[in-house]
Amino acid sequence: MVRLKYIIIGALVVVIGILAAIYFFPSEEKKIRKQFRLLAEWVSKDPGENTFTMAYKIKNIGTLFDGTCEFKIPVYSFSGSYTPEEISSYAVQGRLSFSQLYLKFYDLDIVFQEKGIAKVTLTAKLTGKSNVGEYIDEAHELESLLKKVEKRWLFSKFEVVEVLKK
Amino acid sequence: MALNKKMRQFFFPSLTPKFLIRVSAVALFAYLFFGHICTPLLIKGKSMEPTYQNGSFNFCWKWRYLFLKPKRCEVVAVRFAGSKVMLLKRVVALEGERVEFRQGKLFVDAKEMDEPYVHYPCHWNLPPRKVEKDCLYVVGDNRNMPIENHFFGQASMKRIVGVPLW
């Protein structure tokens, strides 16, 4: 009986240890997923968002990007290389045109091309309502590159996959 | 009394092993059939009107091209983003063919095509282009919009996932 008690306690300790290791030392894939989750959260805007929340989100968006990030998003006529400050500034302008905006990323397929570089193919879904009352509901397949800089995965490229070539 | 018992048994069945096996078999079949063979589709957008109306419901039959290749004039589902977002489009040209629009009329290999499914006026002009290997040229039936606002063009065969069931 006493032996069984020790076995149960031992098993519990092992399970807690494994869970703690997963929580405190997340895999590289999990870290990348977290970056996408944060980007989606900080780009999204609830109706009636207060100034403090807006300032917090805008301040943080730039921290997710590498020194220069390349964008190839012809559907929004947005292409070129931008610094984190420029990206934050575009994010402010973009968010101001919407009364509510929601960005979601899903179907993430992460491939580690070489050490410190990850290529992610994903679906981005953007929904919202503009200030003039127009609703948007769009989904696109994206390819993104992330670089590991000082233990952090930073976005260095976003490109919309061209599914139909005119 | 017997009917009452039968009704109760139907709505509140006893959790016998036989019943649990039956439920598991039905769930597994439903998951395989509706998740991988015949997936439900909710049509959003007007690009295939009047053939497929905005907001209508259909299924995507994914085994259609298991042994066959898409033919001209067939409506196909093109994987647009991730595994859930698809485009419904009509195949107008096959690989190696030259496709163009002149004053809204479709020409394939310089021959004007009869398109009984196009009901709305169209004034598109598109210079001729050759459909690349392992690709199809797909267009929506509703061309009553500026050419820039319509998603159409060459799609890779790898992205053709099936056909609408009706």
Distinctive features:
heterodimer; A: alpha+beta; Nuclear Transport Factor 2, Chain: A; 4 helices; 38% helix; globular; B: 166 residues; alpha+beta; Umud Fragment, subunit A; 2 domains; 7-stranded antiparallel beta sheet; 11 strands; elongated
Structural account:
The complex is a heterodimer of chains A (166) and B (166). Chain A is α+β, with helices and mostly antiparallel strands and 166 residues long. Chain A has one domain (28-160): Nuclear Transport Factor 2, Chain: A. In chain A, 38% of the residues lie in helices and 42% in strands. Chain A has helices spanning 2-24, 28-43, 51-61, 84-96, and strands at 65-73, 78-82, 98-114, 117-130, 135-149, 152-160. In chain A, helix 2 crosses helix 3 (51-61) and helix 3 packs antiparallel against helix 4 (84-96). The longest helix of chain A is centred in the first third of the chain and has 23 residues, at 2-24. Chain A starts with a helix and ends in a 6-residue tail after the last strand. The model of chain A has no long low-confidence stretch (mean pLDDT 91). Chain B has 166 residues and is of the alpha+beta class. Chain B folds into two domains: 1-37; 43-164, Umud Fragment, subunit A (Ribbon). A seven-stranded antiparallel sheet of chain B has the order 1-2-11-3-4-9-10. Chain B has a four-stranded antiparallel sheet with strand order 7-6-5-8, with no helix packed on it. Chain B is elongated. Chain B contains two helices and eleven strands, in the order ααβββββββββββ. The chains are: A alpha+beta (166), B alpha+beta (166). At the A-B interface, strand 4 and strand 5 of A face strand 3, strand 4 and strand 10 of B.
